[in-house]
Amino acid sequence: MTFEEFKDLLKSEVAARLDDSCEITFREVHKNNGVLLNAMLIREADAPMSPSIYLEQFYREFQQGVPIRHLARLIVHQYYEAKTPRPAPADFFQNYEDVRDKIFCRLVSYEKNKENLADIPYERWMDLAVTYYYQVDPEWINDATIQIRNEHLQFWGIRAEELKKQAMENSMREKAPVCRKLSAVLEAVGEEDGYDGDESFDSPLYLLSNRSKCFGAVCISYPGELEAIADFLQSDYYVLPSSIHECLILPDDGEYLRSELDDMVRQVNETKLSPQEYLSDHVYRYSRAEAAVV
Q1: What is the pLDDT at residue 195?
Q2: Is 89 part of any domain?
């Protein structure tokens, strides 16, 4: 069965389990780094937004023999899990004053998003780009964001500079950077999962992200953050772009060559990282003497 045939059959099975007022549609969603996903949207009458339910994994499960009826039940359950009792107001995104405090920054690859960047406001940071998104109120839809585009600025009647300033202020206030020893982070994760930490493990690496641990790599672009890390470490250091969500910080004690670190980052990107979470294939070095990334 082709993917298109699967979508049609799945739509019929899902519709049979929903109220007649629900409309089911499909759309292609352009994600970070040029990744294109197919989504099912289930929208109740007059609802301004609906959660996107991505279908690729469901199709793979169908090809492996999972019955379509079971997949339809899972999708309906996922829809009701994402759906909240309080729908978003129909005009919630029309007034900039209503949304400005929930617009934040994220960092993406410039090269892999070059086509998309033509239509959105952004700021270059080295070979990367700081872009901007609106965090949807979780009381309306759980874990949802809206990419800020040039058309939004025109509709709101604001300049890109105003948006960038507001987004950075919001990010630094509500998504403040957190830099911790990687060994301490892994130990805390192990304790949460019920495993005893290995006290003998002491990595020189630090993990830099934000409080929410989502889109935390952008912290390296916060004004003064790189300098603050250098003051804390009292040394030059490397920034290893682990993903769009975090970076690793490695004090430069002369033990590693930059080329070795580049190779390590590339290997992790190729073997461990989701294409959507890719950030960069090479490290950045911060020099205290030059007070800059070199």
Answers
A1: 45
A2: no
